[in-house]
Write a structure and sequence with these properties.
By secondary structure, the chain is mainly alpha-helical. The protein has five helices and no strands.
Amino acid sequence: MPANDYPKHYDHLRSLMSRLSAQAPATMTAFQQLHSAGVGEGVLDVKTKELIALAIAITVRCDGCIAFHVHDALKAGATKDEIVEAIGVAVLMGGGPSVAYGSEALDAVEQFLASNRPDVHPSH
């Protein structure tokens, strides 16, 4: 049995962030603008940026970030194989702790793929 149900964790965090937005609208509006600027189309496509964000999430050991960036990478068209390769880069950069969190990220990928959520459309 997985320690985290990443699709549920993702939905729960979205709900909490909505509550935070109501209490700190200026901060959350600014954060959303930063997020949009950071992962929006540019020289790098959204999928590549989400894979980078996921690798960083693994190395900084953030469960919520893993949930969000696995979801968003899949939504942007990343395949399981591409995500596994990004996990490998995170392990390179983060060592043993990244192995643990990378394993969690792989579990998150498999959970999102199995959930058949309409907001996640994997390539295969």
